[in-house]
């Protein structure tokens, strides 16, 4: 009985010893693919969608209020400088012109009468037939009549101007791109009636997010192409950069001056390729990025100990197929690009790659 018990204890010790020997066997190395970090020059860029607009665009409006009785053009109409675009009811202005013209004719008649009286008083004074006081009175009345005539002429000119303001005319050759009035509508002075895009130079207008400007103004050369035909691109220069940020969209407006050879209709959707100055950094593929507490990181291989460690990094720019590291890794560091999803800090690895 005692020998059986000793045999069982010996068997258990043998099993435990075998387990200890099995536990002492190191686990297999995790296979990963790596790339050696190398400094390179990269050029930040962005493709922004915009549209073609006239370089000069004018908001046209009446200078007096009234009711629209005639609208001659619509959106898309091509007009020439001086063309009548719309008319207001001018009954009141016509009456004012008639009254002003009648007042002018009356003032002219008075001046003619006072001139004759002055000439007669002057002749009589020279012959000493009348006293000096009569001549002075005639001269004063003539000067007063002449002043009244000038006021009447000014009043007529003002009335005629007011009458001309009932016609809205094109300020230049161009295309009507927007309309804000309709026949029968009562409009106020300075209310926008039409938007006129002047013939001549055109711009490609882009609204660029302010983040693109954190590193400075983009390069002057911009590659512009229609969305429908990217192969027909042109190189154009930045003509204007808005000094303020749009409060609603958080964008900055850029106007690129198009060459005459472009010949794209107004409103054509275009894509502009903007580029910034070249910079130094370390470019890594997207497969290399990991996370350390919600912050970007990479797995760094220690070639001496054949182990990995998680290293936080600063990303300067995310691009289409890769990202740019500005700090956290150095040139020649081995960065895990494949097989890093299940790695642990200090885990032994075997690697292949550059």
TrEMBL record:
Residues 59-195 form the Multidrug resistance protein MdtA-like barrel-sandwich hybrid domain. Residues 135-169 form a coiled coil. GO terms for cellular component: efflux pump complex. Residues 282-341 form the Multidrug resistance protein MdtA-like C-terminal permuted SH3 domain. Residues 98-166 form the Multidrug resistance protein MdtA-like alpha-helical hairpin domain. It is found in: Cell envelope. One of its GO terms (molecular function) is efflux transmembrane transporter activity. Keywords: Coiled coil, Transport. It comes from the Bacteria. Belongs to the membrane fusion protein (MFP) (TC 8.A.1) family. NCBIfam families: RND_mfp. This is HlyD family secretion protein. It comes from Rhizobium grahamii CCGE 502. The lineage of its organism: Bacteria, Pseudomonadati, Pseudomonadota, Alphaproteobacteria, Hyphomicrobiales.
